[in-house]
Amino acid sequence: MSKAKKDTIEAKGFAIQIYTEDFKNDYISLTDIAKYKNTDDPRFVIQNWMRNRNTLEFIGLWEVLNNENFNRVQFDTFRNEAGLNRFTMTPYWSYVKI
After folding, report:
1. Other CB atoms closer than 10 Å to residue 34's CB: what's the count?
2. Calpha distance 29→21 (Å, rounded)
3. Are 29 and 17 in contact (CB under 8 A)?
4. Residue 23 DSSP class
5. pLDDT at residue number 93
6. pTM of the entire structure?
7. What is the pLDDT of residues 49-95, one digit of tens each?
8. What does the domain layout of the chain look like in residue ranges?
């Protein structure tokens, strides 16, 4: 994200950062959104959200629609484990393209 323009919106009293590269690719801060539930340590909110089976299904569908190089076979491994107590998935980036 070089030369990204940073903007902020406010929701329920929380500032949420949005980054725009070229007015076609927008990124929103999940960390800022997660602060609504846990202001001290929002990473745990994101980690719990990402291990949810429904979240993983959504991410998989988004990838199928938007990523021609998406590896569906490898994704099935994650999807089958989602929701189990032993399953943990953490974010690599703190911004998700919207």
Report:
1. 21
2. 14
3. yes
4. S
5. 46
6. 0.64
7. 887 888 888 988 989 998 899 999 988 887 888 877 787 776 654 44
8. 5-97
